[in-house]
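User: Watch each token:
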Amino acid sequence: MMSPLMQPIEQIASTDILSCSPETLVREAAAMMMESGCGSIVVFNSAEQAIGIWTETDALSVDLSDETSRCLPIREVMSTPVVTLPHHMSVHDVVGQFRNNAIRHALVEKQGKIIGLVSLSDVVLCQGTEAFLGLKRLDGIQAKPVVVLQSSDSLAAALASMREQELTAIGVQFADGSYGILTQRDVVGLVASGRGQAELGDICTRPVIGVSVSTSLLQARRVILQHQIRHLAVFDAEHRLAHIIGFREIIQSIEHEFLLELHGALRERDEALVQSRQSLLLADKVFEATMEGIVITDGNGFIQSVNPAFTRITGYSREEAIGKTPALLKSGKQSPEFYEYLWRCLRNDGAWQGEVINRRKNGLLYTEHLSITAIRDERGECLHYVAVFSDITQRKQAEERLHFLANHDALTGLPNRTLFIEKLQSAVEQARQYDRRFALLFIDLDRFKMVNDTLGHHAGDELLVRIASELQRIAPNLSTVARLSGDEFTVLLENIVTVQQVASRAQSILDAISAESTVAGQGVFISASIGISMFPEDGAMADALLVNADTAMYRAKERGKNNFQFYTADMNARAIERLKMEYSLHRALAQNELEVWYQPKVELSSGRIIGAEALLRWRHPDMGLISPAQFIPIAEESSLITSIGEWVLDSSCAAIRRWRDAGLLQGRIAVNVSGRQLKYSSIVDTVACMLERYALPSSALELEITESVAMDEDSGMVEVLHRLQALGIYLSIDDFGTGYSSLSYLKRLPVRGLKIDQSFIMDLHQDRDDAAITQAIISIARSLGLDLVAEGVELDEQRRFLVEQGCHCGQGYLFSKPVPADAFEALLRAQQV
């Protein structure tokens, strides 16, 4: 398959050439370039001959403060002559022409006619260069140091810097630390518009689109294509502007990687020539030009000829090598048995290949891939040996790097889960052999998701790197720090004598992690929860120790986070009990053990039932009624809440249909909806299906959403709520006042009602603060035009207070506890009498 850099430029050249006459004004030419998005304009005379070219680089020479400069005819400022290349020239050779002539554009000629224009952009966007681009990261390319000016600096200063340093773009820094970019394309636009007096902050492009230095060239090109730009900012680990790369830097890297591919192709060609043993003379050109070293010896192993690459790789000249044996390269790294096997293969098979460590003339070691072929005559006598070798030292280093990456976390450089498990297993074997103890610390960051969600993944990565560095600093020698995944780290402390040592080290880790950090220019506080298991007390195998440390970590989170917990046997018992509960809950849904109970909502002034709230209950065959507080959290964590929630909705709609048909209920039944249902299930389609199945008007159903879920703007909740509103569903916020209580956000939510949390109702008759809060919530609801329901009404004093303040609906034990469906139906029937 032809390399993409060996294809003729005719295949990538643009046939749509932007052109103008010699008398076209500079400002008009600039406007034409901006309108067409071209980086150059070719000047043709009346005989349709290309006499010059004006490019974005030429635009830097225009004096923007002088209107005369913009009104010059293009013939006075164009570059001439225009470089013209034959259509069959390879892309690789074109890159060389661009480099040698310091140009970025050239015309393409075929049979005496101009058929197109080729530019650096065409080469970078050339299909098939992905293999080259994917091999190198931005931190491995050669790029000019970035020039960064301040946003208050003048345009004249920027243009002077770009001209003097031959830059295609400069960075612009603003007072808040953010960056913009000014490119040659922007200057062309200024030439076209005549805007010459301005501060950089007013004319640069902002914000600048950028990537980290660890990004591959392939990914960088994808970003360039995605945003349709030609320059990309490169940020270092501290999010400082390190480079601005353009097509020129990408071209240099493509050319380098192409040369490497060409070397490989030459090696394959050389090996094919060696196998045609009677045709060595035909390989003279290749012998001299190939990048691989070639040694030809006689049948006794004495060197008769070497090629220039041999001298380049080994440091020995032709004169120094001829007459010697290849033993002059011996490093002593191969055993005598290695050479015995090599000669045995040559005698029996006539060929050998493999890797050898040899020594250069200057004493440095290098690794080579060596192929030796015996050249025999018609009688089978060995006339010559031909050895072809290539220096693979860099490749070996790359393989070692790949091995490192396979066993280490790419972000922090710490051992990953694979390597950590190996080290943990090794620690178990060593401790068992020498009767030692060690500790395993399982660390999980608290509130890390909030950093990612609010400041972005770049800030989260920056924080993880900082924490990894702190763990390595605190961990004693011979211990192992690893990152298992996400925000989970482990520390393996070997040769532990006392538990107090481990506790002290765990507290040091907590203190270091909870120290104030600055990420993405923002001060953040973060903490951690640490679980600790000890060998041999808490497990005799690696997997048991890891599971137990993880279990202890969850106990630390349960106890308020930012603390550490040692593993105890009862933790497993609780974990097993929870698993049993989860299993039973799966079975409960399948075997109809779940029930929907109803708590009436009443008109506070009269006590008349005007609706109800549907509440889930679980009647276990052995344990009886299980509190929702026990099983709802398990349903949430295990994702069962989605299917359970759908079942509750179906049961409630069926009951509504039954009571409406009997003329017992005209009000709404409220069903609670969890955040997971809104986020991960097709709740809108489910509700629409239920209404259609039971032929219910949307006014018969109310959905209650907790305040914290409703305020979760980033998760797409608001869009889902608007879609439910479009169905005509009555939406209300449960437990109002206990969450974020952002009034500005509340105004944008498509809700029609609020439920005052029972924690405020409980003592409002004797607690001024609760009374004041309740009054405030009622006032807020009235001003926003929202309905109110007070929950937890148990005393008549509470009822009277609510009525006086303007809250007309409530629920609570004063009227009725939650009751099974048939009992609630009886209440409805009693009300009809």
Summary: The domain at 593-832 is CATH 3.20.20.450 (TIM Barrel).
